[in-house]
Amino acid sequence: MSQVLGIDASTQSCSGIVIDVEAGTVVAEASINFGVSLPAYDSPQGFIPNGEKGEVHASPLMWLDALELLFEELGKSCDLSRVTAISGAGQQHGTVYLNRDWSRTLDTLPGADSLSAHFEPALARATSPIWMDSSTSTECSEISDTVGGAHLVCEKSGSATIERFSGPQIRRFYKTEPEAYDATSRIHLVSSFFCSVLSGVDAPIDTGDGAGMNLLNLQSWEWDPELLEATAPDLLQRLPKVVSGKTTVGVISSYFIRKFGFSEQVPVTVFTGDNPSSLVGMGASSPGKTVISLGTSDTFFAAMPGVVTDPKCQGHAFGNPSGGSMSLQCFVNGSLAREAVKDRFNYNWDAFTQALEATPAGNEGQLMLPFFRPEISPILNLDAPILKGSDAFESGEEPAQMIRACVEGQFLNMRLQTEWMKLEPDVIFLTGGASSNDAIAQVIADIFEVKVERLSVTGAVALGAALRAAQNTLGANLSDLENTFCEVDAQLTILPKAPAGIYEKSLNDLSSLLQTANEVASV
Ligand code: XUL
Fold it and tell me: How many A from CA of 52 to the centre of ligand 1?
């Protein structure tokens, strides 16, 4: 009887999953791709292309249209009146700027014809900067200098000031459009914006997504007065409250009851960020399990027993929406780097995989620093990889070794850059596009010397949201839910098979290569 809805408001699409908690089954899933379903917004990949000076924005009205299409689509394959709890997650860091009409539009939402037409007059800024925006280097330095340096900002907020984080974005808006900033009475994250619309109340921000703003103090889990002050004037009054991920915000707005047939009084649990949500959706909400997500960028994250911050100030600490905190490290050179090596030899993915299988762990000492574009973990301004090995390898004549060197280089670097988290995982859960590739999974198992598992369910972000809603408002036990819904596919388990310690030398060599590259790049 207990059907629960989880929503994933991500960069390229808005997706939903409905699960049946008692039966342990997925009842319905749907996804609306912004580019495909809403071409009028001219955002084929979910954002407005060709932004100036590193700006990457998207329209919040497009997100609202997609939410309506999602409910229409889900309603075709399940009975939405049977949904008894809802939560969701949003792409992290993106900000939505609302004016004085915001409260009124929330109050009058039940009678609206469409969400986008109803909320358009409440926007104080027509478009929202999202996590891909890199226009705020100056603002990052300004905030950091005012607070006393990157280390202090990182200790306080879990991350040094980062271009895509919301605080520097808000500061840039305040500096470039002071009048529009003045007219802004509320700034929401993507997650809290969706949550507000769904519940018809001005929703709070959870500690998971709030930590991606460079504004939240991770000791008190409150907005940090010094960071607020360094970011923009009178910011506190423009921000929602911060709450734990286990907070019920309200019940579904009657707009959705009338239009899509939801039942009355369905509780809405506070939304969180997509990464914190997938921690739950991967079944990794408690310490001991680590997640590696292979995508455009690769990310590495894990639940943490306490707040730990990166002494090098390149990693992140966020709240864990199921309690405590989590660490996260982002690697820009993810699938695009793997693709670049593949394309260099005109290989397809099968040939790429065969090359990995045909070469031994450790690659006979042939090493690559696989940065085809500037990396953020560690911060290194390269636009081409660095090779170290035999003459033939260095001159690019060894395709198979080159492919192994790229993949090994990525995960050796990942191991080095995540040492600050001091994790000793029992298992790595692999997710994202390339996670189904056994040869890549084998390299990860060998380098981290731990077993790698893949889940049978895809869409961990939306699933995590549904599990959180079931735990928070239906009283379900989260670890039981994780056992049921985040089942690993035992046939896909990969155990380490290279001799233990084989990568010690490669780790040292990559470390030296990083140091040399750093010295060269900073000259
Ligand atoms: C994390 C990050 C991205 C976004 C979009 O810091 O910027 O992973 O959350 O998915």
Answer: 21
CB-count burial class (<10 Å; 0-12, 13-18, 19+) for 324: middle
Q: How much is the pLDDT for 449?
A: 96
Instruction: In whole angstroms, give the CA distance from residue 425 to residue 238.
Output: 40
Is the full-model pTM beyond 0.85?
yes
At 34-45, the pLDDT tens digits run 999 999 999 999
Give the atom of ligand 1 at the shortest distance from the alpha carbon of 297: 8
Count Cβ atoms within 10 A of the Cβ of residue 411 and give its class: 0-12 exposed, 13-18 middle, 19 or more buried: buried
Beta bridge pairs of residue 18 = 5, 28
Return the ligand 1 atom nearest residue 299 CA.
8
Phi-psi region of 3 (alpha: psi -120 to 50; beta: other; left: phi over 0): beta
pLDDT of residue 520: 80
Report the separation in Å between the CA atom of 296 and the middle of ligand 1, taken as the mean of its atom positions: 11
Nearest-angstrom CA–CA distance, 88 and 5: 8
Mutation choice for ligand 1 from 92, 130, 431, CB with most ligand atoms inside 8 A: 92
Q: Which of 244, 227, 249, 246 is nearest to 166 (CA)?
A: 227
Which pLDDT value is given to residue 65? 98
Which ligand 1 atom is at minimum distance from the Cα of 162?
A: 6
Q: Enumerate residues lining ligand 1, CB below 6 A.
A: 11, 91-93, 131, 164, 212, 273-275, 299, 330
Report the length, in residues, of the chain.
523
Is the CA virtual torsion 131, 216, 201, 121 positive or negative? negative
Whether 143 and 227 have beta carbons less than 8 Å apart is answered as: yes
Tell me how far apart the alpha carbons of residues 210 and 228 are, in angstroms, rounded to a whole number: 13
Name the one residue in this structure whose structure tokens are 């409905």.
18
**Which atom of ligand 1 lies nearest, measured to the CA of 275?**
9
Residue closest via CA to ligand 1's atom 5 equals 91
Helix, strand and coil content of the chain, in percent to the nearest 5, comes to 45, 20, 35
Q: How far is the centre of ligand 1, averaged over its atoms, from the C-alpha of 133 (Å)?
A: 11
Write down the H helix ranges in 148-268.
150-157, 166-176, 178-182, 190-199, 207-210, 225-231, 254-260
Helix or strand or coil: residue 79? Answer: coil
Residues 521 and 323: their CA atoms lie apart, in Å, by: 40
